[in-house]
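We modelled the chain as a single entity of 468 amino acids. Its sequence is:
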Amino acid sequence: MELFRKKSIPYLIKQGQGKSQLSKSLGAFDLTMLGVGAVIGTGIFVLTGIVAATDSGPGIILSFILSGIACVFAALCYAEFASIVPVSGSAYTYSYAAFGEVIAWILGWDLILEYGLASSVVASGWSGYFQGLLAGFGIHIPKAISSAYNPGAGTYVDVLAIVIVGIITLVLLAGVKQSTKINNIMVLIKIAVVLLFIVVGAFFVKPDNWTPFMPFGFSGVLNGAATAFLAYIGFDAVSSAAEEVKNPQKNMPIGIISSLLVCTVLYVAVSAILTGMVPYTDLNVKNPVAFALQVVDQNWVAGFVSLGAIVGITTVLFVMMYGQTRLFFAISRDGLLPKRLSKVHPKRKTPTLTIVLTFIMVSVFSGLVPLNHLAELTNIGTMFAFIVVAIGVVVLRYTQPNLKRNFKVPFVPIIPLLAVLSCGYLMLNLKSVTWKAFGIWFIIGIVIYFIYSRKHSELNKNANQQNR
């Protein structure tokens, strides 16, 4: 039974208040900006075109709605957990309380994949937009270093992706208060750019471009929803900030739910206008929003959009890498990864070593692995985490009904069950190669747990001391 040893809620909260405590400096507005910063970016500026061209056609509107609905169910479950356990680690920490150590490790290992690959997807998209901006000034990056490893296409490494990952790393090292101020400004800029595209693009919509609405059938819409799911994972990263939030029991649910609702409206609006401006068959490009404006000769707006996309995608990368660093921090503090990784800088209150580790991981993936492989692997990891969190809400309702819950999921167990079913169905629509890669990652994680993590666990050390 030692594999399923759990952490009590008081223990988790006390752990977050220990000597390795992070700085508590974030409010509800900062959390909402973190959520919007993560959710509005790659999904709008990159994935909209790819999903429309290869999966959904104009039916991408439905794809984003379906993904959004699935995320609403999961977001409610995250909000309840965040109000109970305001500690770093997100779904990993929640699982430690609900299911026990081995499940927590599996989910933590899964989230390492999610955040690492999500950051890499974003860095790759950022590189594509920045190269498009440079091309407007007649500057072209040598092909060999312009994209991830693909010898057939003559590309070997995406240097610009690695550069932006390095810049974000420096921002994260500066401290959460300073870095979130920068994030808030960039988020406001990109919201303004998205609204500019909606207003200008609406004048160039041709309803004929929406026909056929579902050229790949409803199965294509579902496939698109499974891929578009990547666009919504920002609220998961918001929950990883819990330990650095002032009044987290109140502010965490506000930040998670409000950011998701705002972003869903923007996704649907942009998808409708994008596929109305340009035939969906032409949208399989790295910068579809700017491309659509160029097609209708609105180059001045396209320039703003490209610049806004670069700013917007930068905020997504910041939040994803932030979430990854806090995940490494939480797992390390528990002893499941080397303890030295959880050391916090005495002045800046940042986990320096986990930030450096994240830089290395994201640089390797974004610089060498093609974008399409990264996106689907990110999605399967995210959906798995959402399912576990939804089940965890039900488990704690029955095993610890008297816990103080500042936010409660309505209609339990119906809402968590809908989260499980919707996310599970989307997982089944992912390609078999994605499932195989996920399985390999899962097996590697199990091996690491039994070789290293189980013996070095803080709970294992506490149990050994009590037995002496």
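As a brief sanity check on the tokenised model: The chain is about 70% helix and 0% strand. The chain has one domain: 2-467.
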